[in-house]
RNA sequence: GCCGGGGUAGGGUAGCGGUUAUCCUGUAGCCUUGUGGAGGCUACGAUCCGAGUUCGACUCUCGGUCCCGGCCCCA
């Protein structure tokens, strides 16, 4: 092979492309029904957008470059930051909330493995301008509905950072961040070591360790026991009540921390089986990024779906459309073009462009799995009736153009 | 960044220090340009790249690269 594709990228052949588009369309139908509006942002952005959000450390995992004007750029590694940037740049005066979605490719300079590529697709949703439980619940419900529509059985875990943040509010901000990161990693020994290091009170220490293990149906009650009656728990409970109304199964998991500072409250993750180490197909939560990009105090909530991982476990196959091949002879090629043009108003029509002989055209029609062959030969032109052959059964009949279209459409 | 397994025609494969490199499949054409699926014939087509060892390397060694799986990371 002379030129290979770049590491971590993929070619999608026609069959796989059709599968992907089909599932994409299924998910688009869902977001359309929920009245979310699609947006498109640039494939590359100023590098600063991503370092502001995720720190200088991300540069190691970005496709970044300097352009010819010596500006520092990066291919987008995700779309939340670009969408928030877009909001700050040109949507701040729009009615709230904004319910937006996107489906785009993203780029990360990482080691490829199962379910992880250097170019990958994210289907994401962001609600901008509401911090109500209603918004959080809608986001989770939408994510779940989209996955269900794609035939994915996911395991939904919901948590709330407000509760753990409330417990930590007396600590220094950087101490809070550090603890959140350790919780996110489920690094219990690291956590204990750190508690020791910064010497936090024994009671807080015990409560924290207890809280991050809270799961199950009585999680809310247990959390109240540990932290007391606080507004964050009320909010979380309200989200769960709404989720019940949406009839959604979930597990409560207060150990989800999503170790990044801009997450503010509800957080959730959805896992699917059959994906090996990279089994998370969806992650989201409420967050606050707009001030970071120079906008006002506008809360947001959203999620991203890992489309490639979804495709890996999705078994939905696109419906095959009836395919029609026009068979012509050398003297009727121009007539064949006219017939094809007429039929294409209603059907998908394949026309020979190899000047194959009659027999080989039919053979080729068979090869490409045609459902019908429409013969446009001298006899047909003279009689004004086409010969329509059912390639599966092998029978054929003489029909007018309109009759032929009807027959094939209704088959 | 780390660990392991791999790389032979478009796809799937066999093999071996010296072979015309195996087989299946595919594609194109032909077996009267008015009837496909079978069959026959012909053509196309490969040892990932580089260095080393050797009289001789697809085969052994080293480096690179890419693929697969795992760790780390995961916005």
From TrEMBL:
Keyword Transit peptide: no
An annotated Gene Ontology molecular function: histidine-tRNA ligase activity
Record GO biological process: histidyl-tRNA aminoacylation; L-histidine biosynthetic process
InterPro entries: aa-tRNA-synth_II, aa-tRNA-synth_II/BPL/LPL, Anticodon-bd, Anticodon-bd_dom_sf, His-tRNA-ligase, HisRS-like_core, HisRS/HisZ, HisZ
EC number: 6.1.1.21
UniProt cross-references to PROSITE patterns, sorted A to Z: AA_TRNA_LIGASE_II
Main location (coarse class): cytoplasm
Chain residues that bind L-histidine: 78-80, 108, 122, 126, 258, 262-263
Annotated localization: Cytoplasm
Cellular compartments per GO CC: cytoplasm
Alphabetic keyword roster: Aminoacyl-tRNA synthetase, ATP-binding, Cytoplasm, Ligase, Nucleotide-binding, Protein biosynthesis
Reaction(s) this enzyme catalyzes, per UniProt: tRNA(His) + L-histidine + ATP = L-histidyl-tRNA(His) + AMP + diphosphate + H(+)
Keyword flag DNA damage: no
Domain of life assignment: Archaea
Gene3D superfamilies recorded: Anticodon-binding domain, Bira Bifunctional Protein, Domain 2
Record-annotated Aminoacyl-transfer RNA synthetases class-II family profile domain positions: 7-311
PANTHER family: HISTIDINE--TRNA LIGASE, MITOCHONDRIAL-RELATED, HISTIDYL-TRNA SYNTHETASE
UniProt record similarity statement: Belongs to the class-II aminoacyl-tRNA synthetase family.
Protein name: Histidine--tRNA ligase
Species the sequence originates in: Methanococcoides alaskense
Biological classification of the source: Archaea, Methanobacteriati, Methanobacteriota, Stenosarchaea group, Methanomicrobia
């Amino acid at each position: 092979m002379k030129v290979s594709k770049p590491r971590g990228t993929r070619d999608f052949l026609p069959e796989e492309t059709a599968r992907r588009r089909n599932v994409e369309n299924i998910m688009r139908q869902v977001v359309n029904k929920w009245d979310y509006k699609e947006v498109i942002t640039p494939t590359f952005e100023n590098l600063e957008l991503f370092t502001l959000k995720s720190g200088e450390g991300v540069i190691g995992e970005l496709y970044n470059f300097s352009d010819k004007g010596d500006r520092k750029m990066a291919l987008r590694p995700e779309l939340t930051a670009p969408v928030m940037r877009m909001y700050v740049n040109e949507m701040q005066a729009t009615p709230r909330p904004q319910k937006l979605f996107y489906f785009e490719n993203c780029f990360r300079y990482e080691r490829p493995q199962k379910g992880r590529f250097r170019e990958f697709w994210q289907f994401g949703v962001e609600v901008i301008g509401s911090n109500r439980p209603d918004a959080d619940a809608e986001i989770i419900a939408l994510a779940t509905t989209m996955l269900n529509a794609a035939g994915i059985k996911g395991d939904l875990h919901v948590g709330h950072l407000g509760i753990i943040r409330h417990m930590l509010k007396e600590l220094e901000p950087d101490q809070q961040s550090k603890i959140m990161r350790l919780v996110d990693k489920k690094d219990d020994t690291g956590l204990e070591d750190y508690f020791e290091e910064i010497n936090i009170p024994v009671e807080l220490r015990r409560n924290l360790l207890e809280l991050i293990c809270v799961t199950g149906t009585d999680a809310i009650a247990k959390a109240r026991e540990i932290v007391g009656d606080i507004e964050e728990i009320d909010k979380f409970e309200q989200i769960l009540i709404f989720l019940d109304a949406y009839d959604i199964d979930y597990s409560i998991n207060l150990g989800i921390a999503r170790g990044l500072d801009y997450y503010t409250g509800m957080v959730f993750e959805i896992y699917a089986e059959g994906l090996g180490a990279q089994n998370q197909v969806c992650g989201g939560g409420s967050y606050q990024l707009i001030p970071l990009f120079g906008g006002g105090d506008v809360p947001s909530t959203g999620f991203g779906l890992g489309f490639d991982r979804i495709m890996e476990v999705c078994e939905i196959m696109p419906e095959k459309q009836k395919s029609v091949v026009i068979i012509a002879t050398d003297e009727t090629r121009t007539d064949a073009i006219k017939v094809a043009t007429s039929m294409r108003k209603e059907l998908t029509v394949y026309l020979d462009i190899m000047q194959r002989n009659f027999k080989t055209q039919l053979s080729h029609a068979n090869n490409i799995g045609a459902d019908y062959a429409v013969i446009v030969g001298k006899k047909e032109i003279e009689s004004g009736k086409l010969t329509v052959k059912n390639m599966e059964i092998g029978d054929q009949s003489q029909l007018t153009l309109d009759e032929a279209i009807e027959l094939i459409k209704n088959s």
